[in-house]
């Protein structure tokens, strides 16, 4: 137990330490100024302070319900189990295809016996059958839904983007547009694709890595995206460098040429607040506190196992320090401390609610056509796209048990971006805070949950309640 020794940690000790050194104040300021301008959020400023590290401060007055920030993810992934329920763009997580394709694909997978394990869809009383008494739809009808031969009434009111396949020819990633397909390919997917166009040295090893992640913890897939992103960015920076400076002998140039480029490629990841995964992971309820040390060792072993599989799949010797266990642990720990749930509401739910709201005169006839599908989907007809993502600006927001902002998806938010809205008026100069936990819990339970983030909350409410 806990015997894993990562040779890369020892061999590249100095480089790993440099990659994990928190950025300096000027580096933070420079990076976030560029990001704030890109997000068009002139109302916000990331500022470091002595108490809580970085925080987000308001530069203007916001009213209650105002949109404060729409943040694009640095990296995000749909939960593996959710892929059965929701067919979404692998880059922006928008639903794709058509209402018919969404329904047909799900019924098809249901018929194959593939089912989601953590569906959290809810039946809100629009009259579908429960899962135990699902209606069965004939195979040819399901096929007609999937190949657009069958159109459901009023589905034209819920148009979805056409499906764009992966540039590398895998049957895993699909997109809402060519630009999303290209952006994903350039940023992450060219190295993680299992299709014929992949630049992974071994797609067989990739398959093993993904299988292990699906069977253990799909957070490893997100960590692989961060490593892939950094390698691909490093290669671009190197190509530009070579073009500028001429070709170098890259036999052993970690310090002079290669490593500064790797540090630059890693910059956006270096800005995220981090601790090692096995040091900060919350103890599951079924693990006794006396088994804490052993549990943390097991987590470390698991991460090492996953990293070895990833290394076989995408190793690049010029980026060797990225394959250290310490780096892998810190990347996953960064997700643990910063990530936001990725949620995109299902257009299939909107569709059936629309049918349910039709005037009585029309509804009966339409429902004769749509009800069998609703019954076949059962309780799960409304499952949203679910995953997890790291957002560079949102992740700088500190916690308060009386937050002035929250992550909230509005009706118009159809993709995976983070949407932060004001819960009450926020004044110029105030810090923007969100709650990391259910703030309705009693004081002790809140502090217990926040201990997993490594701090005790001293917000005005906590100070008052601890007395
Ligand atoms: C999502 S990050 C927030 C940004 C972070 N302050 C930074 O420097 O990047 C979460 C971490 O910030 C710190 N933090 C957030 N809210 C805090 C609070 N109310 N009191 C103390 N530390 C806090 C904790 O270390 C926590 O694990």
Task: Describe the protein's topology.
Blueprint (H helix, E strand, L loop, with lengths): L6 H5 L1 H8 L4 H14 L5 E6 L3 E6 L8 E5 L3 E4 L20 H13 L27 H8 L17 E2 L8 E2 L2 H15 L10 H13 L3 H27 L8 H12 L1 H4 L6 H4 L11 H23 L10 H14 L1 E5 L2 H10 L3 H18 L7 E6 L7 E2 L5 E3 L10 E5 L8 E4 L8 H9 L8 H7 L1
Parallel strand pairs: 9-12
Antiparallel strand pairs: 1-2, 2-12, 3-11, 4-8, 5-6, 7-8, 10-11
Helix pairs in contact: 4-5, 6-8, 7-12, 8-9, 8-13
The structure holds S-adenosylmethionine.
S-adenosylmethionine binds next to strand 2, helix 13 and strand 9.
Could you please describe the fold and organization of this structure?
The protein has 467 residues and is an alpha+beta fold. The protein has three domains: 192 residues, no CATH class; 105 residues, SET domain (Beta-clip-like, Beta Complex); 131 residues, no CATH class. 44% of the residues lie in helices and 11% in strands. It contains 17 helices and twelve strands. A four-stranded mixed sheet has the order 1-2-12-9. A three-stranded antiparallel sheet has the order 3-11-10, with no helix packed on it. Strand 5 and strand 6 form a beta hairpin. The longest helix is centred in the middle third of the chain and has 27 residues. S-adenosylmethionine (SAM) binds next to strand 2, helix 13 and strand 9.
């Amino acid at each position: 137990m806990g015997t894993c020794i990562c040779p890369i940690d020892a061999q590249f000790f100095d480089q790993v330490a440099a990659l994990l050194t928190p950025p300096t104040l000027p580096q933070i300021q420079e990076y976030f100024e560029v990001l704030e301008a890109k997000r068009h959020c002139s109302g916000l400023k990331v500022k470091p302070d002595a108490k809580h590290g970085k925080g987000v401060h308001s530069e203007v007055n916001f009213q209650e319900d105002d949109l404060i920030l729409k943040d694009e993810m640095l990296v995000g992934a749909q939960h593996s189990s959710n892929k059965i329920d929701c067919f979404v763009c692998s880059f922006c997580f928008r639903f794709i295809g058509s209402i018919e394709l969404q329904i047909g694909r799900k019924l098809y997978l249901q018929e194959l016996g593939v089912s989601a394990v953590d569906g959290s869809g809810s039946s809100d009383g629009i009259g579908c059958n429960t899962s135990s008494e699902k209606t069965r739809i004939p195979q040819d009808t399901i096929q007609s839904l999937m190949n657009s031969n069958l159109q459901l009434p009023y589905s034209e009111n819920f148009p979805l983007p056409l499906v764009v396949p992966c540039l590398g020819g895998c049957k895993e990633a699909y997109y809402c547009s060519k630009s999303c397909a290209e952006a994903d390919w350039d940023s992450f997917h060219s190295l993680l694709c299992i299709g014929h166009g992949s630049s992974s040295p071994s797609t067989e090893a990739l398959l093993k890595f993904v299988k292990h992640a699906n069977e253990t913890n799909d957070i490893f897939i997100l960590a692989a995206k961060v490593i892939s992103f950094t390698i691909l960015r490093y290669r671009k920076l190197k190509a530009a460098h070579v073009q500028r400076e001429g070709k170098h002998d890259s036999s052993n140039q970690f310090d002079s040429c290669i490593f500064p480029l790797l540090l630059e490629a890693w910059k956006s990841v270096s800005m995220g607040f981090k601790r090692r995964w096995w040091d900060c992971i919350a103890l599951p309820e079924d693990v006794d506190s006396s088994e804490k040390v052993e549990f943390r060792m097991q987590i470390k072993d698991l991460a090492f196992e996953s990293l070895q599989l990833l290394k076989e799949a995408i190793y690049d010797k010029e980026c060797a320090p990225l394959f250290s266990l310490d780096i892998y642990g810190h990347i996953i720990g960064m997700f643990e401390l910063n990530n936001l749930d990725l949620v995109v509401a299902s257009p299939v739910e909107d569709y059936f609610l629309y049918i349910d709201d039709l005037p009585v005169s029309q509804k009966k006839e339409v429902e004769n056509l749509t009800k069998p599908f609703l019954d076949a989907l059962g309780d799960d007809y409304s499952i949203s796209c679910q995953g997890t993502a790291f957002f560079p600006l949102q992740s700088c927001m500190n916690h308060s048990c009386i937050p002035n902002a929250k992550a909230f998806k509005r009706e118009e938010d159809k993709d995976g971006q983070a949407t932060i809205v004001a819960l009450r008026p926020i004044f110029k100069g105030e810090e923007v805070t969100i709650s990391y936990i259910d703030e309705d819990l009693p004081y002790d339970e809140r502090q217990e949950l926040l201990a997993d983030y490594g701090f005790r909350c001293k917000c005005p409410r906590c100070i008052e309640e601890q007395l």
